[in-house]
């Protein structure tokens, strides 16, 4: 496969009067640049703006050969060849006029315009100018507006277009073919030869899967996507792969990863629900179909697991049958999921109260002193994750590992972040420090319930409880109803209001320390854990309330009083300490760009050079129907909540299917919930973990209703009859009054950027 990539620099835009001042071509053979030619051309006059744009000085041009010496050789070399140029009509017109002026005949050249093809393939891109495309392609930023680097970039762009071509919808392919000469059509039809072998393997694998996995269909877009994942794994770098609905991105990244693992890999999902879906459905099906002998592991945060030592202590809390079930689960030591609390205890709301007592917590873990160390579920899960070649985690755990400097997951070379549009939020949340009276109450309850009675300093504890109640009332009066930022001065007011509580917490800690010498073994370990937790609580309170740092400090009252310190910028930190450790990072989601650009994501995450690819939504996959209820009252109108509840009841009675309603506000969700019968209905508000609410809803028979909040807006898959009717109570636009949104808008304005 041979073609020439050509670029001309000119003194202006009019081929009838302006002159060519630089010519370059690069000959590509079998997907690689093999031969390069570049020359300056002496011109009569060099406009100042062109000198500034190209950096070519009049002195250099004076020493250059005239066009009459250069052009015959160039035309001779290009004669009969496929010549690609970015905005080819421009270059062709200049060559035509220049040849005519010199009395030369223009030979037959098979022109291909990479600009026109780029517009057809990637209509969503905001800019198709060569510098912008060079950035998207991940090509080195060399001198722009110089003929040789531009010719080479054009050649690479054409290779990308060849690679994308086989996976385009038929009408787009026909449109492109109509615009290119016959020899170039053959190139397009053949695809990019250098990638041919790998694509063939992928094609074979995907067609094998379509025979082996029931319901799996071979999709061209998925093949194109998988080819990019394969390239990312092989070549390394940061890739932003934006795959519209129906592309099949999960198999698209799992297949290349399982076929040829290029170093230890971490797959991170936004939610635990998606993590479970990968682990239980997609990975096992593919591993079996491909007979992939790769060690894989699932890992969640420490407190998702059961602590057998706590169970031993609190065993009396559980009924005989439940206790038996727990023991049976724990005896399956080979199963890496053993110990995941909600899987053991199910979704009975009554058992959820007990769960907190037997949940593994880092601060109350005995570590090496623990008699259950070898059978400890969170430690076992972590060990098997560290030994696995592919680990499935969620974004929160990924961020926790970053904060623990890799102490949780160990080193890895490849990261695939699914639902990657939510990574900035995950890092923002992970780096946020927060404190609430509820945290203090939870720790006090834990001290009362878990320490031996003689080790509990009753008087100090009563003092903390009393002061906590007083502070809660005071804060209720002080804080605005809606989330709001607070200044350093206001922070000092909060800190002074909380000072008495802090002193009492310190006194409680002192009393616990005094009693430590009377304790032994596990009891001593437990009390030490509570002392450390108290110390941490006090330091978080002092930091978050004082509002001294660079973060945005803000508070909220609903669902509970809570103070936050949220960093606005962390891209530089990630660039320095996170991405550098990863050889190949694939960030994928249905939506990564805004207006075809990924600057926002790149800046937020500190990604540096990233290659962006878009795989458009597959038309035939859009099987649902959308109804806009214009007759309905608006969400801000009085009758909206009642009308919504009534509509839900009618839909349920009439269709007897499973229905999910997505809310943007807890208040509205609560109001609707109050108007519905409890039977056959799940509210996410009643579950501490959205994944549990999802599982409970899955387990219900139709008709059933799930009332969900923001964590169910994306990343949850309810195939087929698991969910058939979706109601959107209000579109999830960010609330402009949100203190974080406001602070981000101000920051962008200060940087001269438009927040919209
Ligand atoms: S090692 Fe820690 S988490 Fe594990 S069983 Fe023991 S105390 Fe519980």
Report on the architecture of this protein.
The longest helix is centred in the middle third of the chain and has 29 residues, at 488-516. Helix content is 49%, strand content 14%. The chain is of the alpha/beta class. The protein has a 7-stranded parallel β-sheet, with helices on both faces. A 5-stranded mixed β-sheet has the order 3-2-1-4-5, with helices on both faces. Residues 192-198 have low confidence and may be disordered. Among the domains are: 2-191, 2-Layer Sandwich (Nucleotidyltransferase, domain 5), CATH 3.30.420; 433-566, Fumarase C, Chain B, domain 1, CATH 1.10.275; 624-756, P-loop containing nucleotide triphosphate hydrolases (Rossmann fold), CATH 3.40.50. The chain is elongated. Helix 4 links the parallel strand 4 and strand 5. The chain contains 30 helices and 20 strands. The protein starts with a strand and ends in a 6-residue tail after the last helix. The structure holds iron/sulfur cluster. The site of iron/sulfur cluster has 13 residues, from helix 14 and helix 18.
Which labels suit this protein?
alpha/beta, 20 strands, 5-stranded mixed sheet, Nucleotidyltransferase, domain 5, Fumarase C, Chain B, domain 1, 14% strand, Rossmann fold, 756 residues, 49% helix, binds iron/sulfur cluster, 30 helices
The DSSP helix count reads 30
Count of beta strands: 20
Helix content: 40-55%
Shape: elongated
**Fourth CATH level, the homologous superfamily of the domain at 2-191:** Ribonuclease H-like superfamily/Ribonuclease H
Q: What is the terminal separation in angstroms?
A: 45 Å
CATH topology of the domain at 2-191: Nucleotidyltransferase, domain 5
In the predicted model, the low-confidence regions spanning at least 5 consecutive residues are 192-198
**SS class:** alpha/beta
Radius of gyration: 32 Å
If strands are numbered along the chain, what order do they take across the biggest sheet?
8-9-7-10-15-6-16
What molecules are bound to this protein? iron/sulfur cluster
- Mean pLDDT equals 86
Q: How large is the share of residues in beta strands?
A: 5-15%
The CATH class name of the domain at 2-191 reads: Alpha Beta
CATH architecture of the domain at 2-191: 2-Layer Sandwich
Biggest β-sheet strands, sense, barrel: 7 strands, parallel
